[in-house]
Amino acid sequence: MSVYNQPRKRVIQFIILGMVMLIVVRLFFLQVIEKKYSKLADANAVLRKVVYPSRGIIFDRKNRSILSNDAMYDLVVTPIAAKNIDTGYLCQILQIDKEEFKRRIATAIIKNGSRRVSVFASLLPPEMFGRLQESMYMFQPGFDLVQRQIRSYPFSAAANILGYIGEVSPQMLVKPAYSAYNQGDYLGMTGLERAYESVLMGQRGIQYLVKDNLNRPQGSYEKGEFDTAAIAGKNLRLSLDVDLQVLGEHLMRNKIGSIVAIDPQTGGLLAMVSAPTYDPNLLTGSYRARNFSRLFVDTTKPLFNRAIQAGYPPGSSMKPLTALIALDEGVITPAFGFPCRGAYVNCGRPIACTHNTPGHAANLRLAIANSCNAYFVHLYRLEVDAPKWGGVKKGHQKWHDYISSFGLGHRLGVDIPGESGGKAIDTIGMNKLYNGQWNSCSELYVGMGQGQVVATPLQMANAMCIIANRGSYFLPHFVSSIDGDESDILKKYKEKHTVAHVADTSYRSVIYGMQDVVESGTGRIAQIEGVIVCGKTGTAENNAVVDGKLVKLKNHSVFVAFAPRDNPKIAIAVIVENAGFGATYAAPIASLIMEKYLHDTISVKRKPMMKTLLEYNTLDPIVREKSKLDSLNGATAKMTSDQILKLYFRD
Amino acid sequence: MINRRQIKLTEGIDWPIMGLYFALVFVGLLSIFAAEYREGDNIWNDIIHLNKNYARQLMWLGISGVLATIIWLTDSKFFTATANLLYAGGILLLLLVLGIGKDVKGSHSWLVIGGFQFQPAELTKLCTNLALAKYLSSLETDFTKLRPRLIAAALALVPCGIIILQDETGLALVYFSFFLVMYREGLPGLLLIIAFSGIVLVLSALLVDKNVLFIIFSVITALVIYFSRREIRRHRSRLALILGIWAFCSVFVMFIVPMAFTKVLKDYQVRRIEVMLGKENDPKATYNTRQSMIAIGSGGIFGKGYLKGTQTRYDFVPEQSTDFIFCTVGEDFGFLGTLIFVGLYVGLLLRIIFVAERQRSTFSRVYAYGVASIIFFHMAINISMTIGLAPVIGIPLPLVSYGGSSLMTFTMLIFIMLRLDADRQMVLR
Questions:
Q1: What ipTM was estimated for this complex?
Q2: CB contact under 8 A, A31 and B299
């Protein structure tokens, strides 16, 4: 058979040679006949100008641009043409000495050669630019001013969400992932700028200009046949409400902590405050480096996004979840009561409870409203010790499965980088911690959100979404759409996740309990006129190791809530570090934000409360002394509480 | 026998292919180096720390050398015995990538193992080639029948389909090169001609106005009828055939293709195809080709000299050490350089075909033709896209482009062939 087809060898050889001939003819045309290409590559004849695209703009949910572009100028030099000028005067304007001048010229020659354009001084401050522009004719053609875009933040808000851009570093450039960048390019370093870098960056273009003998551009080469237009980056549209964000940042001033507000129906983040924050405009423009190092070393860590990176014990805000697990596993019914006398004593060492009146935990609804510690640690034990598991190890693992389906103990996957996963101990962790010898008493605190369970504010707000939606959620995210984008980059945020299989009736009893918290329980301060608010206060105990000793610190004030009860529009978590009761600080802050979002305004009745909140100062005096934030914070830090109030109430 | 092999390890090796292999790898290293090296770089430091692609390529070459040695020392029966197993393994690997793969540069086709990225779609070319050789050399396979032809086509198209799902269309297309092998083994030539004409028809329908096409078809048909009028007078059926082809082409171009584009394909798919054909003037799509044509064209007849290129060394050409490595050759060495360079490939391909034809066993012959077809397809498409003859689909230049998966796969392809060739006195199946 092989002999039969042997002539086909000739055909295949012919195909190969034919294709190669085609290639060779084309190469001959490109390389030998056509002269346009070699001229294009000749730097002396044709000037190649890189056209930088404008970076994508970021809009909030009401289409206000919260991150846009501003023009600044670089002074660039072509060393070979920079002769016979008044260097002394130029140095004077730039405030450098002659040594520095020579050094910069030498660097430019080493980097790019003497015929190519290099940056001499980047991002000139406005006053310097003004003086230079007036006398530019004296330094041309060797020097020139080149416009460059910088990022600007019109609302001076949402610094940690939006992130900042920075110059690509030599370490990055050697990695294949950054092959599209050149030295001197800027790219997103943190926040949305980084997460959506590929969308925001756009694509560089190239323009070819014919030059005359004095190196001056004389119009486009071959009528622009070879030019490539720059493609602007795509714009992002966020679910964020910048009014809400600014209000949150105002309310959190002089406090450490965080606010996360989510639209439960879409998973879109409405606000994410991490306090203390900073004016994002500090990290653009001429003084970026100086400001960055000051923010970086600041004792209050303003660059740290507490809303997604800090883990807190959820405290009593965890109790609704404990209740849902117990209801779903059938170890209790909503009518289940626990005879709490002010402490839980079934495990030896008593666990104190704020109430000691009999009947304050007579059923689930009451127990949630009164935040009975004994009730919920008991629920945890009932659940893990349920006979059907045949052992606490399996029971605890089941508990852990529930907790992680509620989004705790692992990263949720929000669309900004750096998220932390928090902690929710599983059976393997318990075995390690207790050398395999443990029972339901060992870590019963997890039932009330203390001990081996740690959550980020984002996770707490997300858990509220799950309760608000009665068992489903969308991954929390900022970007709701990207202009002109067809990729499936946002697909995972449009998917509805259903949690476990907890019954609707279980949710109902927990939600009614949370309604009671606000209507008659610990969180009455969070009431909003005309809206049924469901919430839960939390007062999270926390410790720190100081000088080698475990010291108990002042409690974190925690409040989680959603509203309205039916058809929920906002779910929120507020944490004020080391402030005290949840009801005193976190609850009113959450309430004001929900009111602003639901009613678009804050009722005048609440002005005194807001004033008190604005003036609360929970910062440790020593920390405050050391922090330089007041001088850095610009826009809001210098305002008095009355000035801020004027923004919200017309007198 | 065993003793003899120990005495002379290199016995039976085909030196021309070895020489061409090393020449191409060497040119590849030089070009990757030229694309990346900047004055003042500390070369030794970059090599030791694997900072640059040329350093990493050296490492991959070392690994490829080890693989080649292992293959050379393996009994050639091993490859026939495990061909089907390797194919099944390759398909499983491809499916695995669909599940747990990582997105790199917009395609979901990479596995990440301990910091190294690896693209199984490269490796499965080898598996498919072995499986196809095994199937066609089997005594039960009568390749003049329809069923074996369909099975052989499926062997090539299954991995192709999975790779399309991974969004790596370029590498998927390579699998069509196996039809060249099947043609050599008896697939009717008419099929190749029809497939080729089909592609030309679709492309022309997209690129040229349909009314103009209709006129062109009509003129051609009229000319054909005029020149074969005597023939037609003798056989009336010829006229019907010619008119039938004319009618089919016209309907196809004027109605079927536009309808497929508006009704069947989705909007973004249509745009992608149009951009690929250069019909829509998308700067993003034309940028790469334009820059690479400038780089190659500026090389002139004699080139600018090694390391003297301005286009490839200042990052004007994208992907210049992988898909657009040919630009460096074109710019630094000019038309003479590219002529010699393309000559190396032609030499390699013709030598492989020569080697293929001297095999006694069908397995070895089919395998060797497979190697030639894959290399030919890669080379032709890659060079064509850098000079604007083909749309930009990212497939590497064999043995030259930077990339571990690609270099290792081509090394293994070639060295298995060399091993089979050394044992050509045995009849394998």
A1: 0.87
A2: yes
